[in-house]
Amino acid sequence: MKTIFHGKLALQQRVLPNYRVPFFELLNSACEGGMSLFTGLPRRSEGITTTDKLRITYYRLDHNIHLFGGSLYLCYQRGLTDWLKEWNPDALIVEANPRYLSTPSAVKWMHKQNKPVIGWGLGSPPVRGLRQQGRLAFLRQFDAMICYSQRGADEYAREGFPLDNLFVAHNSVSPAPAWLMPDRPKTFNPSTRLRQSGQAQPCILFVGRLQFRKNVDLLLGACAEMESQPRLVIVGDGPERDALESLASEIYPATEFVGAKHGAELKPYFTEADLFVLPGTGGLAVQEAMSYGLPVIVAQGDGTQDDLVRKENGWQIPPDDFDTLLSTMKDALSDVARLRTMGEESYRIVKEEINIEKMVGTFVKALNSLRGK
Fold this sequence. Notes:
The protein is α/β, with parallel strands linked by helices. It contains twelve helices and 15 strands.
């Protein structure tokens, strides 16, 4: 039975990335009084794909005023409090980011109406001195906190945030798979290039935007040094594509660059692969790869992958560490039976534990926990 929030929800985001649309639409359907979303636009240099196609009760696109850059970046969202007065929600969820200068005023307005505010954040890595004092004051304004990962929840708990008001909604961009896991053979497929020798050739897949931070160059180099000479398929486009194709022609010319693919176009690539590798930051495609029963190798990041990628279904490796990437890929492909078992666990995780349906359920649980307080 679907859990419902019996009220009107307001939710603030700095920007609306395209990948969040399914989650927000599903959350809207779980709010009896509907949901309103407030966002602005990113800087052009950020490369965030946004959308204005959102089927919710009320969507407000206003103005983000971007100040400074890098570690000094600040953002002021004009019209945030006016939007709250207009929508008059029963609860507010905001990004728990102290760099957003308009958030405290919105929180104060809600509390004057005796209505709760929930922060939604990555976590609270250790800081010292005045920054620590400022962070504690920032966190105390929230009635509850929704975290992307257990690591984030643990960090908030160390700051003294009440455990009863901490909720872990594992970061997800995909629904639970509605399809059966592909039935992969017990051995790797025979190599097309090496058919005469009958040598098996595992297939490694990368899906993502071709940017410098994705470390695809390290993936090319690792494949070039592997005795198994895996089939390497690169799905995606971006500013680094020409440079990567040039590098591949020198060190691993068999690399297949197939360009950007979306939706149903991705299915054959996920189905044919044996291992998904993401050696850099980001990783929206990891969950989709897991939904097709693929074990995964991902670079460690902000903690959002910690609960998703476990020793039972994959490997987390340090970013920018070529030797570890190479040794991990060799280890992964050394045991086909183990690899298939890990793929089955990947599928189970996104089917049963980490998907947008479960994520919405946690948001509703957090909202309902504050009703009447």
